[in-house]
Design the sequence.
């Protein structure tokens, strides 16, 4: 129990003293995760809406595969991205291994199926409601997708936040492709793993509390900016 | 929308590696000892080289070197290093410093390791008493050293192979009140000792040599061999010798510098 108290105290001092290293790794955590989630949304949201609107052969199979990919083990994703980006691998010439870009690539692979799947669920229900109207207005497929995305934007927010939640706390993949290099690829989760390894539980827990707080701040900010959960709105 | 995409591209671009830097894969003991935090700023000041550390076990460090993903490795497992050079992955091997392994265990010492005369006898005593021993189990230098020390003993449920780094292994040993083998530097710098202490040390078989191996530049176009040689040059200099020999934790020296002057 004392360790938890020490962790809270460590977190308090890290934040109050505006520890430059803490600020740097926190910003890097946000940079990597937000970029990955933004790219994941750009791919996942239109794809999810398309899966709801369009009927094609093997559609069910595609949906099942995407749902299954939600459970992709991050360590395996990390290892695969490592092998691809390694200098002896096919994309080695790009020199991306052990950079934040490599971490973003790994996280995009991890969050995109999750965002696609949640987006598809939300769009499917909305499509059932809008189906007759949009068909009778003789809209094009792209117009239908745009309407669904716009009217379902609050549900899509959940998809984005779920992706953010999975990515910000992820350590397995980014440890392998980022390498946890000080000043270059160290983020909150890998720093926590490092401090745990040194036996400095107070600092590790302190960083953990900072991570939890950061995640809450991002969620609350996005909710308040998009005015959900307010009077008369859903 | 365009602005969002633009911002994203900027943030991706902003992440490319800087010039005059090199990547060095080191063993966890080098970093956990705290020596890296002292040496790296001095290297930066002396030769303007930004050394990016990848802290992994010796096995993984050599894998990274063989794939050409790092420019040099600093490891501690003689047999694996010789194989690495024989396979053409590294150019040459330079001995930098050494320390020793120590056998850590609970203060109560149920296997009576304190009274044994050699490292092998100490481990045999642990095996005979079936006291819990945690092993790194991750193909690291420390793990290889530990495997070489065991006589023919019957391994049973008392032997727990973790597959984890030195710090994580010490954490586990501390929580289970178990025996384990650690390098002296990691142990001295470890913050969560609990009831554990050094029970055996001093056998010549526990000698632990660290060497620097520049990765063969033929392994890939991106390998920064010039900087790897510059780093080697710095390690062979007087500053490195003085800093490594005087680095202490709790008044205990952690590493001894190899005197390379006779071979130069």
Sequence:
């Amino acid at each position: 129990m004392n360790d938890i108290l020490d962790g809270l105290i460590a977190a308090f001092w890290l934040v109050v003293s505006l520890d430059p290293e803490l600020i740097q790794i926190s910003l890097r955590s946000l940079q990597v995760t937000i970029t990955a989630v933004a790219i994941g949304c750009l791919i996942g949201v239109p794809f999810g809406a398309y899966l709801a609107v369009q009927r094609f052969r093997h559609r069910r199979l595609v949906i099942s595969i995407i749902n299954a990919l939600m459970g992709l083990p991050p360590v395996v994703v990390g290892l695969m991205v490592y092998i691809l980006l390694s200098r002896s691998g096919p994309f080695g010439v790009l020199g991306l291994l052990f950079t934040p870009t490599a971490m973003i690539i790994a996280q995009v692979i991890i969050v995109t199926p999750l965002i696609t799947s949640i987006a598809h669920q939300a769009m499917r229900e909305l499509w059932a409601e809008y189906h007759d109207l949009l068909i009778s207005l003789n809209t094009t497929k792209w117009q239908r997708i745009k309407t669904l995305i716009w009217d379902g934007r609050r549900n899509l927010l959940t998809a984005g936040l779920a992706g953010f939640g999975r990515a910000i706390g992820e350590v397995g993949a980014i440890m392998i492709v980022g390498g946890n290099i000080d000043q270059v690829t160290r983020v909150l989760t890998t720093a926590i793993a490092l401090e745990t390894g040194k036996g400095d539980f107070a600092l590790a827990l302190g960083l953990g509390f900072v991570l939890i707080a950061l995640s809450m701040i991002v969620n609350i900010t996005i909710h308040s900016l998009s005015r959900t959960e307010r009077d008369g709105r859903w | 929308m365009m602005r969002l995409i633009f911002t994203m591209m900027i943030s991706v671009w902003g992440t490319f590696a800087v010039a005059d830097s090199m990547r060095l894969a080191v063993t966890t003991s080098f970093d956990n000892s705290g020596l890296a935090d002292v040496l790296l700023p001095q290297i930066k000041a002396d030769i303007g080289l930004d050394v990016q550390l990848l802290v992994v076990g010796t096995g993984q460090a050599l894998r990274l070197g063989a794939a050409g993903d790092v420019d040099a490795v600093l490891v501690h497992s003689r047999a694996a290093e010789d194989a690495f050079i024989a396979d053409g992955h590294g150019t040459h091997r330079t001995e930098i410093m050494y320390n020793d392994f120590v056998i850590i265990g609970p203060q109560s010492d149920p296997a009576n390791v304190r009274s044994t005369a050699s490292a092998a006898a100490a481990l045999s005593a642990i095996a005979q008493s079936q006291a819990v021993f945690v092993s790194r189990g991750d193909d690291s230098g420390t793990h290889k050293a530990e495997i070489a020390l065991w006589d023919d003993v019957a391994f049973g449920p008392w032997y727990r192979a973790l597959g984890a780094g030195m710090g994580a292994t010490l954490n586990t040993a501390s929580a289970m009140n178990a025996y384990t083998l650690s390098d002296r530097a990691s142990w001295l710098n470890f913050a969560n000792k609990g009831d554990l202490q050094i029970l055996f040390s001093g056998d010549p078989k526990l000698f632990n040599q660290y060497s620097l191996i520049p990765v063969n530049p033929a392994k890939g176009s991106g390998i920064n061999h010039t900087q790897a040689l510059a780093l080697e040059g710095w390690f062979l200099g007087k500053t490195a010798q003085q800093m490594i020999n005087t680095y202490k934790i709790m008044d205990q020296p952690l590493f001894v510098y190899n005197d390379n002057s006779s071979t130069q």
Q: What stands out?
A: DSSP finds eleven helices and twelve strands in chain B. The longest strand of chain B covers residues 94-106.
